[in-house]
Predict the structure.
Amino acid sequence: MIRSALMNVMTAAALKAGRGLKRDFGEVENLQVSVKGPGDFVSAADRKAEKILFEELTKARPGYGFVLEEGGAVEGADKSHTWFIDPLDGTTNFLHGLPIFAISIGLAREGQIVAGLVYNPANDDMFIAEKGQGAYYNNRRLRVAARRDMADALIGCGIPHIGKAKEHPRFKAEFASVMARAGNIRRLGAAALDLCFVASGSYDGFWERNLQAWDIAAGIVIIKEAGGFVTDADGGQDMLAKGSICAGNDVMHRNLLDLIKAA
Ligand code: IPD
Ligand code: CA
Ligand code: CA
């Protein structure tokens, strides 16, 4: 298990913000029945969690820059370090009372992601990795799945929502291509966690487009440290800039990438 000072800082911040999110998640259920619904309440929960993460990380590592989902980019005095933060990944799940959501914290040093943490406060699932130190789920070392046959594979994906109609045709083509070959497909709705499920071997592969750097920064290092392969949808290393991702073990990653490209 990684016990570096950096990981202690990241873990403490996530646990503190997670306590608030868990409390708020308990309230969401009561708000489903109100006419207004829990929308505004969830936005406030999201912002509150981000504020805690920002304050805790700034206190522990003054000067590091931030790329925050809600607050945008915050430049720091230390130009070589940047946090990528999604305080609540899986908002739709949270809003609907589904306990599949997470805080995601990635740290880049000189443009390279060197540490990642994904924490689901609903069930206390904590995934962490530091470059060169391995990836861990709670105290257990993570390894990607060893399956090599697409017909046995469980593949995760992201589906563009109604507001992303322009993305629908490409997704449908990619989905058809993967559906014809993969054993089964899932869509859980929290990209940061989806990537951790590749690292833990639950998923054999995962692909999604139109993501943001804060959705995937942490998951990328967690998959790599679990022995997995991860690229953008074109097979390069531009995941953060392009917002597309394809992951799996060496064989699954290559096969999934081929299926997406052939779509
Ligand atoms: C979303 C989730 C979802 C993905 C979307 C993201 P949010 O993040 O990761 O799985 O399909 O593209 O925007 O809005 O819940 O933080
Ligand atoms: Ca997100
Ligand atoms: Ca979010």
The mean pLDDT is 96. Residues 5-141 form a domain with the Fructose-1,6-Bisphosphatase; Chain A, domain 1 fold (CATH 3.30.540.10).
